Amino acid sequence: MDQKIQKVVIDCDPGIDDSLALMLALSMEEIQVEAITIVCGNSPADMGFSNTKKILKHMGRLDIPIYVGAERPLKRDYVNALDTHGADGLGESFLPEVPGYENSMTAQEFLKKRFVPGQEGGPCSVIALGPMTNLARLLSDCPEAILSMDRIVSMGGSFKSHGNCSPVAEYNYWADPDAAALVYETAALYGKKIEMTGLDVTRQIVLTPDLLAYLKRLDPELGSFVSAITKFYFDFHWEWEHLIGCVINDPLAVVHFADPGLCRGFEAYTAVETEGISRGQTVVDSMGFYRKAPNALILTETDPERFFRLFFSRLLKCREEGLDLIPGLAAGSRMTGTVFLHGKEAQLR
């Protein structure tokens, strides 16, 4: 992995998998997190702020500034995802609140200060793990700010995978399709490319009961913390998808940012639908019908075993070579057999 340190602003909506992504980003020596901006999405903005403080406290990183941003989408009514992430947005772990830590500057004000051309601070990228409302508000006022963003990695969208909140749409883009459409349009206008880490690759990143048990064995304290914030997620995935485990979308965007070789894909012009039953769908012109220059890198392949080796080694601060073959991730195979999840028996096929 390239050891060059990359500065980044993480825009997120914690959220269970956002929280795991924050933990991972703060554990990676390749990433320097300059700030965290909060957007409404999985959880309301104030709840996301509270959850971010809890994660930073757990990681011993309350030195990182947090800026609260959009409390509603650009045009749509706000629809949260607490049915997926629990009443507290953090898997109903109900961790103790972290008092104080207020910041008078809003996310939009910070993003303007950081990315409007002519500002100091050097190269910096954005990892967008939630709806793109904060970025859209910035770019609607100052579209050339996109030129100051070294890279833009977005966990969102879908190419050929089915959606997770409609037949065709991924939640982040569905929740604020107008924002996502504006960001992609601005990227096309200024010759930038959004690195779309969508459901085609994130659906392959499944935290299984075996993996969680392995993490607990290697580090009981860390494993118990991850277990506390993901149990609700496990139950949700079992109830709605009969999946033994939970899809942790956002950490893959972080690992892709640090190690672009983990995922593969292709460049294409991409637009986001804002209306009707296709709201939030990413329309990927993979065949070049529009004859437009690519404004996105569409990730379609990844390596789950390699991801989890990186995920474990960074969180545990150990060498990858020190890890045994991670349970349930034998290369080129799928798990088979009978397992038990929260007292329920399920046959894996």
TrEMBL record:
A matching Pfam family: IU_nuc_hydro
Annotated GO MF terms: hydrolase activity
All copies of domain Inosine/uridine-preferring nucleoside hydrolase, residue ranges: 8-308
DNA repair recorded as keyword: no
Alphabetically ordered keywords of this record: Glycosidase, Hydrolase
SUPFAM superfamilies: Nucleoside hydrolase (SSF53590)
Tagged with keyword Magnesium: no
Transmembrane segments: none
The protein's name in its UniProt record: Nucleoside hydrolase
Organism whose genome encodes this protein: Enterocloster hominis
Lineage of source species: Bacteria, Bacillati, Bacillota, Clostridia, Lachnospirales
